[in-house]
Every structure is written in C-alpha cells, then in structure tokens.
Amino acid sequence: MLRVAVFCGATLKRNLLAAPPASVGYAFFPASLDAPLPDLHGFAGALVEPAPGLRRARLAALRQALDGRPLGSLSLRPTAAGLRRAQQAGFDFQLGSWGPGNPGPAEVAARMGAARPEHSVALPAAAKRLAILTDVVKTANSILEPRKIIELIMAKVQELIPSEAWSMLMVDEQRRELTFELALGEKGPDVAGFRVRLGEGIAGWVAESGQPVIVNDVRKDPRFTGQIDDQTQFRTRSILCAPLISRGRTLGVVEIINRRGGRFSRADLDLLLTLVEPCAIAIENAMLFQRAEQLTITDDLTKLFNSRYLNLYIGREIKRCKRHGIPLSIIFLDLDGFKGINDQHGHLAGSRTLTEVGAILALAVRESDVLARYGGDEFVVVLPETPVEGALVIGERIRRSIEEHAFLREEGIDAHISASLGIATYPDHALTPEGLIQKADQAMYRVKERNKNGIEVAH
Asked: Could you tell me where the beta strands, DSSP code E, fall in 30-174?
C-alpha cells in the first residue's frame, strides 16, 4: 500500500477518509506545518492544503524532508486561479476535493507516480491516466455548478496536455456565437470579451461541424483567421480543438494552443476526447439543474427574483453588514394607477405593464443591486452597502423613470402610471429582513395616503 502524509484541515481529512480503503493509506498532520515535521521515512510523498498562512520556508523544509519524493497541493473546491498559485508555489501537482471520497485513492496514486516515476506504484502509464480521468469524471458528475465543472476540466487539461494557452468557449445559441467562458495562459484575461461566430476560425468550425481537429501549422490551414492574435499580440502556431457534445447538442469547444515540447498528437486528441465527452454531459446536467433552481427563485412574469429569494438574500446581506459595519437599504415600491390599466385594458395589458416595470427597474439600478417582485404590483429593490442618502438618489431615479415612461406603446395605448416608494435602512430602522420590509412598506403607504408618486424614508 502507498503511504501518503497529508497536512490538512478537518474537512479535507473527512473527504479523503470517505473513500473506500484501496491502494493508498493516509497519515494526517496539521496544515500549518508550524509544528516540527514528522519523520517521513516510509512515505511515498505528501499532500498539503495550501492555507493562507502557509510559509514558503516551511514548504521548502517539507520538500527537503521528502528528499525528492512528490509533493502535491490539495484544495477544497479549487478555482483555476488557486491551482495556478499552487503551481507557482512549486508543488509537483495539484489536486482538488469537491466532496466526500474525492480525490479517490486511484487518482492520488496515479498523481504520485506521474510526478515522480521512481516512486510510482506498479501501474502502467495508461492505467494511471485512466485513473485520473475516471476520478475527474466522477467528480464532475457530483458538482451542480457549471462554472466549477469547467474550472475542474480546464485545470486537468492544463496538467495533462502542457501548452501555452487553454480555453473553453460556450455556444450562445441565440446569437450563433461562441463566448470565452474560461481562458488560461498569458493572454487569458485579454480574450475574455471576444466573441467568435459559429463557423468562423478553427473553434467556430469545430463548434459548427461537431468534429475535433488537430492543426499543427495554422499558417497552412484556411480556417484560421488570426483576428484574436492581431488584437492580443499572441502568436498561435498550433491548435488542438474538440467539441463539447451532450445528447447530440454542441455546448461549446475546448481549444488548446501551442503544445510545449513539440506537436499535438493523436494521443493528445484521444486524451482530450476521453475527458470532455463525459464532462459535457455533466456540464449540461448542471446547467439544467441551475435553470430549474432559477425557476424556484424568480417571478415567471417579470423574471425578477421572487419574495422567497428576497428574504433569504436580505438575511445574508444583513449578516455581512453586521460583520463589516456597513449599511444596507431597501426600497419598497407600489405602482399608482395600475388597477386602472387592468380595468380598462384587461389582464393581459396589466401583465405586460408589470413586465415593462421590471425592465425599467433593471435600467435604473446598479449592477450590484437586487430586484424582486414582492407580489401583485409591489416591487422591492435591495441596495447593498448603501445609506439612506444613496437610496434616495436611486429611488428618485426609479420614480422619475416610471412617471416618464409611456406603457403599452406597442399596443397603441400609451398609458401613464406612477409609483410610491418607501425606504428603510439597516441598522437605522430595523435589524431583520422582515423588519426592514415592514418599515419600508409603512413609509410607502404614507406616500400613498398623501399624494402618491413620491418617496418617504422610514421613521
């Protein structure tokens, strides 16, 4: 059995021990490495949780104690950025733990052997690679966040096929374009805003045809456009590109550029296809789950958040405000004259009016603000890190936008309504989500009883 020393916290320890005993046995030590290092004689290598306080000197001491045996990082739900930091810190390889039983013993054994072949367990290269891929696929299927799956896949692609750049582009079916979901490499941040039309360039061709491709000299391939190279000052020499296909539908493509140490091979393509084919299904499943979850927290008509989500969100924000000593304001809004539209023009016209109000609110608030339909013709705007003075500015912008808008213009009606708004702020007016909503609601009703079409702050 392969013995591995693991320097980690309690959560990672539980995750590793949840896997059935197999070819690896673990001995656990504090993650900080501050205590005297244990005798590592008899261990095949070590795994370290790269905690924020970990000192490079202690890591160097551990490396010296291992005397050439492999040293890997082990992180809880690692991001692509975190994996890059671990690589820069000098670890031989990086592993992620996404839940109990992960990473499995087979992947740990395979990574130990791949990092230092002289300390490898008796597994042929193909078996080691299969162990890694099997564990990645199993992990991907246990994650319900598309972005996390994409980060996991791309981190593994980085390690398995050493190159200068790696990216995953996802299909925007409405616009028939590819967008960069994740781009790694020196110019990764520079390409984030680019879009590629389906059929355009090698990535676009792969997305449209559904066929993988190896191009070891892009200058000789008429599909290569070079537009992104021109704008980023990057030089693409070779490309390996494979489609992400799930249930017959192309979700996107994985593109690898400029293989280090030579040309892309058929073995590289087979490895990439082995990884992306099952992971495409995991991505689609996560997207479907996310869509279904979204339906439970959004209003069908306006596509804003619903009151169920609103209370949860305000509760979380209040906890954050309490920790950091920052304010939080909410605006409670009720439409004036909405009943008249329903009575005169029917329920369908009323529904379209509410949809237009949702669009007006989205344009009037900031990106960090949260919008919800509270019920009927009532709406709530949550303004993080905003005192009363800031809420009044945003509230006036909303009030004016609604007052000046001509509703149902496409139906030839040109209706005009207004809104009454109440503002409440944490911690000045209430300390709970229910208290804030109640105070803002009471302030709004005072506007209603007065002249309507105005704003009032809670008492």
From this structure: 45-48, 71-76, 93-97, 163-172
Residue labelled with tokens 């891929």: 133
Q: Domain 307-457 carries which CATH code?
A: 3.30.70.270
Q: For residues 171 and 109, give the distance between their C-alpha atoms in angstroms, rounded to a whole number.
A: 36
Q: Which tokens hold the place of 163?
A: 């190159």
The predicted model scores a pTM of 0.46
In the CATH scheme, what architecture does the domain 156-292 have? 2-Layer Sandwich (3.30)
Q: Indicate the burial class of 156 (C-beta count within 10 angstroms; 0-12, 13-18, 19 or more).
A: buried
Q: How far is CA 251 from the centre of its chain?
A: 17
Strands 2-7 and 24-29 turn out to be parallel
Interval 65-113: pLDDT, tens: 998 899 999 988 776 666 667 767 778 887 888 778 888 887 788 777 7
CATH number of 2-128, picked from 3.40.50.2300, 3.40.50.12780, 3.30.420.40, 3.90.180.10: 3.40.50.2300
Nearest residue to 202 (alpha-carbon basis) of 187, 213, 216, 192: 213
